[in-house]
Amino acid sequence: MTETFSGSFTQQEPIPDEAIEAALAVLRHGRLHRYNLAKGELGETALLEQEFAAQTGARYCLAVASGGYALATALRAVGVGPGDAVLTNAFTLAPVPGAIASVGARPVFVGVTESLTIDLDDLAAKAGAARVLMLSHMRGHLCDMDRLMQICDDAGITVIEDCAHTMGAAWNGVPSGRQGAVGCYSCQTYKHVNSGEGGLLVTDDEEIAARAVMLSGSYMLYERHLAAPGPEVFERIKYHTPNISGRMDNLRAAILRPQLRALDTQVTRWNERYQRIEAGLRGTPGLTVIERPEAETYVGSSIQFLLLDWAADKVQEALRRCAARGVELKWFGTPEPVGFTSRYDSWRYAESAPMPASDRVLAGIIDMRVPLTFSLEDCDLIARIIRAEVGAVHQS
Length: 396
Prior knowledge:
By secondary structure, the protein is an alpha/beta fold. Helix content is 38%, strand content 14%. The protein has helices spanning 17-29, 44-56, 67-77, 95-102, 120-126, 145-155, 206-215, 231-237, 250-261, 263-281, 312-324, 356-362, 376-395, and strands spanning 60-64, 85-89, 106-110, 132-136, 158-162, 170-171, 174-175, 182-186, 199-203, 288-289, 296-297, 302-306, 330-331, 365-369. The longest helix is centred in the C-terminal third of the chain and has 20 residues, at 376-395. The mean pLDDT is 97.
């Protein structure tokens, strides 16, 4: 009898009881706006920022409305403006070039390797083209951060890290988001903590932090922040920094604080599932598993593999066959964007030239979510289905 999978690839775990109780407390007192505080109250959002700064080892943290807002705020805070070039990955999601375009800047795309990380040779070749790199740790894959930072430091490039898929990850023990000037994280439902939408920004630079707070819409209430620079820093920038409101509210912050305290446990659970699927896929004819570097501590909330040099109709057939058995795979190489999938030549507001080596990789990338609602037995079953259907198409 043919095995099928009946689970959901979009069903998250319930919000933890502790987070629900914290949210109810906010709803009962009604002070959802982050600056609407009772006498002596610190506020959920300010406490979230203080706790996440400590968790990542950052001096400063700002909670905002979304991960995409954090990215655009980081660009503005480091001084990117209209017409400026910003280096970024050819393999990323639409909010990354979107953030660059939102400030009037121009994305300059850097290639992708078969490890699904930014091509450091291509980055070195293009280092003179821009003074800022928005580095996307796409789908949770970290490049050699030591070499990347050496390239950028030598070229005077400021690095903004897009850590939407790497909250809880690290390179050589350094948390993702802590090597560049700014780290930006997402709290959207399909990321590692779930407040529906939301974002976090961390930095050690006091002027970047102060500009980000002002940009987020603090008015002159910056002294209510617990993970921000002192008032003397705001005095230097407050008259020259626009308000582009995008604050996080106390309700979402209340939901997030307990989840962040449990992040290490959740990372372990994701990686158990990832590793079961990865083990089941190894040796499948025609399928390339993405090897993880020893220096990388990853978060396996999704898994990718390559169908390198497959004809497009064969890729589509394999995906159809897996879908018929209940396994939802996403193809990043599709010529037209579908759902969250996309590729650099899809964003026609941004000029780009073909990159044949990267195009070959992009044409073969297959992606799958790994929600924590999957059991380990589910993961074994999913791997068997993919192995059988990909193998069958390859051999045909």
